Amino acid sequence: MAYDTGQSGTAQCGVIPLRPLAFADVLRGMFRTAVGYWRQLIVLSLAVFLVSYALIHGAVTVAFHSVGDQAQLLLEDGTVGGPLLVVGGVVLLGTMAVTAFAVTLVHSICAVVVRHAVLGGPLTVRETWSRALVRLLAVFAALSAPMLTAFVVLVAVLVLVLYAGPGGLVLLPPAVLFLVWIWARWSLAPAAVVFEGAGPLTALRRSARLVRGSWWRVFAISLLFLVVANVGAYAIGLPFEMAQSATTLVDGADGAGVPADDGLWLTRDFGVGGLLTLLGPAVAATLSTLLPQLASTLLYVDRRLRTESLAPVLAAAAYVPPEPVRDPEPAHTA
Question: Would the pTM of this model clear 0.85, i.e. be above it?
Fold first, then answer.
């Protein structure tokens, strides 16, 4: 349904009504987007995290076996060798880079899908992928701004504590409050990047302007879905962890007495246990990333409906399905 009038008489454009969104409207919009665009949103995001975790798992597995002797010493008596430090540092940096890429790409995918969902237009997986990649760097910069701010503020507090003693900790509560304020103030920036084609700095300013006057509402809804998403992700991950632990025990019993250098370690590490190691975190990451971002993107639309009279623009841009071609009626002869 691209554009019609519901039972309440309110015009409907895509997955949302053309009026300021109540909390129930946000919930319905999230559900309709997830159901109507499940391939573009859920399947594509899950695939991104699966591939990312497969790369990380493979790199960690290969790195561990490349320094197997030193890794064993670390486990036995805490001895850390130079090669182990180098390999561990490279793997850590690679893991951070791959994870950041996956999270940023899923944020971009979510905003692209919601942008089309509010207009009710069709969207293919290929189009979603290409449009998400186009805005990837700008979305990454917008997401990085709050994290960089938090890093700078917390380092400044730490330096003050080191030089001024424990009395410097009095600045920690105000610093945390400031970071919470910044987080909510800039939370709509990724949506602004995708919806408006804005650069990172422009998107941050747009988010701050849209949140002004409704900070508590944006903060409360965003925090609610962040908590729900992380609790749900933890609950979803538990069965996978239990199954993976059971598989590890079975594999360990079956593989008792097999030398570590028998050449079969790659097959064992990428067996059923390896699959569960990838699938559980990927499903959990998909939920914990998509749910808050869906809410934030719909809040972005809501704030524009409230402050910028976006409803006529959405109505004009709404997707209208083409009329079916009808065969001409045969002429009747007298």
Answer: no
Bridge partners for 5 per DSSP? 11
Confirm if 7 and 319 have CB atoms less than 8 A apart. Answer: no
Is 124 exposed, middle or buried (CB count within 10 Å of its CB: 0-12, 13-18, 19+)?
Answer: exposed
Residues 26 and 300: beta-carbon distance below 8 Å: no
Query: Encoding tokens for residue 129?
Result: 């992928």
Amino acid at 295: A
pLDDT in tens, 245-277: 666 555 554 444 434 444 444 444 555 556 767
Token pair for 274: 């390896």
pLDDT single digits (tens) 178-189: 999 999 999 999
Domain extent listing, the chain: 3-134+213-317
C-alpha 208/C-alpha 302 separation (Å) is 14
Tell how far CA 36 is from the center of its chain: 19
Q: What span, in angstroms and rounded, lies between the C-alpha atoms of 143 and 27?
A: 24
Give the pLDDT confidence of 282-313 residue by residue, as tens digits. 999 999 999 999 999 999 999 999 999 888 88
| C-alpha span between 21 and 305 (Å, rounded) | 8
SS3 214: coil
Q: Across the beta sheet with 16-17, what order do the strands follow?
A: 3-5, 11-13, 16-17
Residue 222 parent element (H or E): helix 215-254
Copy the structure tokens of residue 86.
């180098």
If we measure between CA atoms, which residue out of 6, 197, 39, 184 comes closest to residue 115?
197
- In the chain, the amino acid numbered 191 is A
> Which residues are paired to 4 by β-bridges?
12
Contact 3, 79 (CB under 8 A): no
Matching residue, tokens 């809501």: 302
Q: What is the DSSP string of 159-201?
A: HHHHHH-GGGGGGHHHHHHHHHHHHHHTTTHHHHHHHH---HH
